[in-house]
Amino acid sequence: MNLAKQSRTAKLWLQYLQHVTVLKQFLRAERTANWQLHLASIRRMVHSFAATGHNNDAKCTRLYTEMMTDLPDTHSDTYQEFEAGNHVARRSDKFWAGISPDLAIEQGMMRSF
To answer: What is the C-alpha end-to-end distance of the chain, expressed in Å?
Structure first.
């Protein structure tokens, strides 16, 4: 982009907007139970983890995406379930109501306390 080349401040803001876009994409994938969007957003997050020094997260995320990409060949039944939207937890049938299973477990535990 020309704007990023002209100004360091503009470059910073454009990078910020790219990160926000990735997070919004991830949230959309989780809330709507879109498996392909989930994988695409996770792939885009790997670079952010590496750039910010979260090396373990970057390694695990890269391994996760590789394993999930091979899922149709290795575990086709699980892949079909994930494609059907069963990789998220839902407490209602609303379109935007999906949440990650770990978040559902955490919320359930906090509710019981």
So the answer is: 51
